């Protein structure tokens, strides 16, 4: 399952994501992972979640991002939630590539993916909403 927090810069997406990460760590019987660009969430996300800075691993582009997420799940089958902040800054602003990224992620089972997407909802291709739910 893929869920999206969509809005322009300053609309509260990251705050909502942090709240969802912290809630998931309390409810999940497995592990919760949060991917960010930079290290801005260090003091906001509970220590119960695994916080990963995509920049520390040189991740850029949707192919590398997918490989990272698939590797996280392959390395730890107990991962129940993967959160991603700054999705467009990590993968790029090509919305068709974003749609392809989500299509590939749908093959990874037993994980709930939640991403922030910093843009107007109207800018995203309609096919994204067939694969992902806006929250």
Please provide a written account of the structure.
α2 (62-75) packs parallel to α4 (95-105). The chain has 5 helices and 6 strands, in the order βαββαβααβαβ. The chain has a 6-stranded parallel beta sheet, sandwiched between helices. 36% of the residues lie in helices and 24% in strands. It has 135 residues and is an alpha/beta fold. The chain starts with a strand and ends with a strand.
The helix/strand class is alpha/beta
What is the overall shape? globular
The total strand number stands at: 6
**Biggest β-sheet, characterized?**
6 strands, parallel
Q: Give the H and E element order.
A: EHEEHEHHEHE
Helix content: 25-40%
Number of helices: 5
Oligomer type = single chain
Write the layout of secondary structure elements.
Elements: E1 2-7, H1 13-27, E2 31-36, E3 50-53, H2 62-75, E4 79-84, H3 87-91, H4 95-105, E5 112-118, H5 128-131, E6 132-134
Parallel strand pairs: 1-5, 1-6, 2-3, 2-4, 4-5
Sum this structure up briefly.
36% of the residues lie in helices and 24% in strands. It has helices spanning 13-27, 62-75, 87-91, 95-105, 128-131, and strands at residues 2-7, 31-36, 50-53, 79-84, 112-118, 132-134. α2 packs parallel to α4 (95-105).
What are the main properties of this structure?
single chain, 135 residues, alpha/beta, six-stranded parallel beta sheet, 36% helix
